[in-house]
Amino acid sequence: MGRKLLTEHINVPGIDTFEVYRQHGGYRSVEKALKTMTPDEVVEEVKKSGLRGRGGAGFPTGMKWSFLAKPEGVPRHLVCNADESEPGTFKDRHLMSRLPHLLIEGMITSSYALGANTSYIYIRGELLYVLRILEKAIAEAYANGFLGKNILGSGYDLDLHVHPGGGAYICGEETALLESLEGKRGNPRNKPPFPAVQGLYARPTVVNNVESIAAVVPIINEGGDEYAKLGVGKSTGTKLISACGHLNKPGIYEIELGVPVEEFIYSDEYCGGIWKGRDLKAVVAGGSSVPILPKELILKTAAGESRLMTYESLSDGGFVTGTMLGSGGFIAMDETTCIVRNTWNFSRFYHHESCGQCSPCREGTGWLEKVLHRLEHGHGNMHDIDLIVSVAKQIEGNTICPLGEAAAWPVAAAVRHFRHEFEWHVTHREEAARPGAVYPGKAVLV
Amino acid sequence: MESTTAPVKPQFSEAAKAEIARLLTHYPDDRKKSALLPLLHIAQAEFGGWVSPEVQDLVAETLGLKPIEVYEVSSFYTMFNLKPVGKHVLEICRTGPCMLRGSDELTANLERITGAKVGETSPDGLFTLKEVECLAACGTAPIVQVREKYYEQLDSPEAVDAMLNELRNMVHRPLLPWEQTGLQHTQQ
Amino acid sequence: MAKITFDGIEIEVPDGTTILNAARKIGGDIVPPAMCYYTPLKGTGGKCRACLVKVSAGSAKDPRPMPKLVPSCITTVQDGMVVENTTNQQVLDVRKGIVEMLLINHPLDCPVCDQAGECDLQNFAFEHGMATTRYEEERRTFEKIDIGPYIQLHMTRCILCYRCVYTADQLTEQRVHGVLGRGDAAEIGTYIDNIIDQDFSGNVIDVCPVGALTDKTFRFKQRVWFTKPVNAHRNCENPKCSGNVVLWYKGKDVLRVTARKDEYGEVKEWICNTCRFEKKETSDWTIEGPTHIERSSVISANHYELPVVNPQVIADMPESTIRDLEQNPPLKLGR
Asked: Residue A427's domain spans which residues?
């Protein structure tokens, strides 16, 4: 079992209270940073750690921080992206509800590094109950002098607030999130300007995922170099993986990056294999947006090497035979899963969640869903299969924000790896339209 | 058509007003619009689980916004009900990971038990069924959200019954933190 | 100043100029189309994706190409930037795709649409689109609604460019309409049947690139190409109104009044609702003379400017036509 940097104390009774959290070493990173380090030194440690954004894109957090503009006299903000909505991803909800003080501690240390005096946690509206937990914890942090004026006598002031969304996946995109935080529709902004220059209220802003901010705590406590010793290559540290779908033990696992996918799925330490004694058919490894891979390609790369849970290994083979680590939303599908139905379901999701601002996404996501609905329900034609690939291509890369790609990739990958299953839905319409119907053959590998 | 009785203009309770005042301190003075989503949540809780045009106008007035600025936002986010709803809104997750663990069957069962189709309210006015997208609880799928509570692993008739019975026996929705403070305040 | 190369043409423009406006300075066929961007309205652009171009060199300092196509309407130039528009096949293919996307939910009811003949979407589709559609699904439809006494909203035709929302925000005191809902269910609306009744609300008709917002006083009166546009002005009482308009005549009757637009369909000066809707007599106005209409416009087809065929926009012309054209070259008018 690898080291647990974030969730070591998650099962300690009362760990959601300030007192118990403090007894287990909580808020040490704040003391260390505010009393012994300059803000730039904190940034430097995070850079050294090699931490990559845990929300999905995997952009180096330290580098993102160093892009923050610092014009004289203009307030800066840190905003925590707790709009966890990517299907298959549920790690942040778990972390925040069980270890609220870990996020708050990370917010204080990170805000100090960035010179922000007002920071926000933007949490998806559905998680109002978690917002209550966080607000209670924030009140405790204020009461104990870790928030407010002159924290620990350092002269550093910080106010921290939690802000609820209202039900919109798109607000996980950082500029849509900022629009939403300003009380507007969650329409992503055109970039440039980037948030680091003009973010919340047109002020320089950093937006980071919950898990990224939580990871700052062990990084400061143990040092960036120590953190970077965990993991493999450029995939340093630990990562929370939300495992779901047809697994014996779905749940949240903190893994050291580098665990083989096969071990993660089958070992009793992690997911304990596929439920009901069935065979694995396919995996969506990093949240619904990333390309689906058939069993053979998720366990081993096209070159026959064992596939690891790292940013690099999962993307080995590009989009032809690889996928992405993404947000760590690991969705396993057993042999009874209908890929066409699942692809339609995901397309319906993106259609439902498109903000409607730019034309390729607004029109294209609906088109994809409608054609996939027809295919799944026994009204498809052969040319529809090429059509959805073509429409997905027309969306990809041409939209304001990455939702376009998120909608296009799953469709393209499903057809790439499971084309025969789509064709079977056309040649066996009646059979395919029956509830629970599954293509009887095997995936054809490219 | 003209209505014969003028609608009574809704007003926030004292507890809600206190909560709104607290929330407004979170944002710069010239950025009160930021409080729009939090206020819509309060309004929905205060006024029977949905936000009527009159309620949205009240929110606009409270924040000094044009009413259209509120309508644009309330219609963008899926959590705000723009039509009257039953006593409990069952928000059933229908996205991939829940579908893999039986959300289609769950929806069918809830439709059968409550007598309401998705998008409708049951004849007894108790339940409104609403399909929603991923609620970030895929590990305990399938799931239903009712107000601030998640009912997870609803993959057995017993689990579904337990949820429905709990809701049927609920006289008043659970008080929210700011309502409890308000209550203490009035009791003193 | 920044020197850029656009489709092989070099031009120097002030820093901060957008790629689109730099291209407009060059003019002609190389200018990218714009369905949502509108110079007089702050904040417009970036949405329709019609003007996407390839930046094959970012700047002299950093000559790497930009990885994705960029919206030329909101991307500012850098010194040494190299941009490809009509010279890049990927750009043209993507643009064809954008036309397709904009049309899948469009009713294609041009024969009964008042905007036909001066419709940006019609022109865009004609120049860049395909003659057929691959879309077999049901189209999105809405009921027509009257928003106030003068304006009709035909949401089914809308392409959600947001121009009318910016217009109401920036020109009128109290915006009452906006974009409601989201995704492809998003619509322009007032939510509770509020009427749009503001001094300058009529300008939303002029900025609308399609027939979604039309002038009720002109509804079904005449096809635009059968009317004659004439420049005119009056001393308007409203201090914010320029009083400079175009009167659209049929015979002796003024059928409608609009603001004056430039060659890219952008309003030069806003006009008030009184000028637009209530001054329909020649005696209300001082006539200046015929309005210049772009030679490629269908509006000029039936009157004082002789028909001009632009061979570049007609693909696969029959041999006989090409011969005819060579023997009787079309008259070149205008600039």
From this structure: 339-433
Based on the domain organization, do A209 and A102 belong to the same domain?
A: yes
A235 in a domain, yes or no? no
Domain for residue C39, yes or no?
yes
Is A114 found in the same domain as A88? Answer: yes
Whether C22 maps to a domain, the answer reads: yes
Three-state SS sequence of A340-362:
HHHHHHHHHHHHHHCCCCCHHHH
Which of A334, A356, A387 is at the close of a domain? A334
Alpha helices in A289-381 (DSSP H): 295-299, 311-314, 318-321, 339-353, 359-376
Q: What residue of A is the nearest CA neighbor of B73?
A: A185
Same domain, A73 and A115: yes
CA neighbor of B80 nearest in space, from B55, B103, B60, B61: B55
pLDDT digits (tens, 9 = 90+) for B129-182: 999 999 999 999 999 999 999 999 999 999 999 999 999 999 999 999 999 865
Q: Is C213 strand, coil or helix?
A: strand
C282 to each of A4, C255, C257, C278, C279, how far by Cα in Å? 83, 11, 11, 12, 8
How high is the mean pLDDT of chain A? 96
Check: CB of residue A18 under 8 Å from CB of residue A141: yes
Q: Which residue from C207, C88, C197 is spatially nearest to C150, judged by alpha carbons?
A: C197
- For the complex shown, is ipTM > 0.90? yes
- Residue of chain B with shortest Cα separation from A243: B139
Is B134 annotated as ligand-binding?
yes
DSSP letters for A241-259:
EEEEESBSS-EEEEEETT-
Q: pLDDT tens for residues C160-199?
A: 999 999 999 999 888 889 999 999 999 998 876 666 667 8
Residues A104 and A162 in one domain: yes
Question: Measured between CB atoms, does B69 come within 8 Å of chain C?
Answer: yes
pLDDT computed for residue C329 by the predictor: 62
Which CATH number does the domain housing residue A407 bear? 1.20.1440.230
Q: How far is CA C309 from CA A282, C123, C125, C295, C328, in A?
A: 58, 15, 18, 9, 11
Q: Do the chains contact at C190 and B68, CB–CB below 8 Å?
A: yes
C83 backbone dihedrals φ, ψ, rounded to 5°: -120, 140
**At CB < 8 A and 24+ separation, what contacts does A137-142 make?**
A137/A16, A137/A18, A137/A100, A137/A101, A137/A104, A138/A104, A138/A162, A140/A17, A140/A18, A140/A101, A141/A18, A141/A101, A141/A104, A141/A108
pLDDT reading at C313 higher than 70: no
**What is the domain partition of chain B in residue ranges?**
14-74, 88-168
Average pLDDT over residues C103-123: 94
User: Contact C104/A363, CB-based, under 8 Å?
Assistant: yes
Domain boundary among A169, A200, A229: A229
- Say yes or no: A325 and A399 in one domain: no
Three-state DSSP class for residue C223: coil
Question: Residue C10 domain-assigned?
Answer: yes
CATH number of this structure's domain B14-74, picked from the four choices 1.20.1280, 3.40.50, 1.10.10, 3.30.980:
1.10.10
Cβ of B80 within 8 Å of Cβ of A345? The answer is: no
Instruction: Give the chain C residue whose CA is nearest to the CA of A353.
Output: C183
User: C166 lies in a domain?
Assistant: no
Please, what is the angle between helix A210-222 and helix A28-36, to 10°? 60
Which CATH code for domain B88-168?
3.40.30.10
Cross-chain Cβ contact A359/C159 below 8 Å? yes
The mean predicted confidence, pLDDT, of chain C is: 89
* Number of domains comprising chain C: 1
* Nearest CB partner across the interface for B72, out of C174, C179, C192: C179
- For an interface test with C, give the residue of B33, B57, B59, B71 to mutate (most C CBs within 10 A): B71
> A67 lies in a domain?
yes
Radius of gyration of chain A (CA): 22
